[in-house]
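Hi V.,

You were right to ask for the full record rather than a summary. Here it is.
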Amino acid sequence: MRHRILRIAISLLVTLFGPIAALDVQAYDRIESTGNVLGYALPIAAAGLTLGFKDCQGTWELGESAALAMGMTFALKFAIDKTRPNGENQSFPSGHATISFTSAEFMRKRYGWEHGVPAYALATFVAYSRVEAGQHYTIDVIGGAAIGILSSYLVTRPYKGWTIQPEMGYSYFGIRLSHRW
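Predicted structure:
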């Protein structure tokens, strides 16, 4: 069932974004345009997985983690106002890297490594494309990736199965073992 859902999600992405990737490649570098497309495709794929699994709670968690990550990113962009390699403003952190890694960590934590590994590979390519295109410095995409991963890690719960998580409070530290059916 999972492989069928994944095939449907990939087919949907190719159908939706294939024509966009073919648009006037002369105007954009191929790496940059592919990174831009993937920057939109990853959150759509994550949302598609929640629909495929009929996972309403996952949809809410994806929305919460994306809102948290992008809110932090835009607050930092305006507060720091670092100049980009191309001379424009608001370089740190990279919004493309933030949303890509938010989506990748959501897919990994919610649905497992079988979805997380390809998502992390694509998110890494998005970050690479931003540096290669001269839109960001390496530290910008690392910062965006950290924000995205942290936000999804904090908000997202596994879909089903056993989980082991560190837990701490004012006067204790421990490990929580839980199972979702």
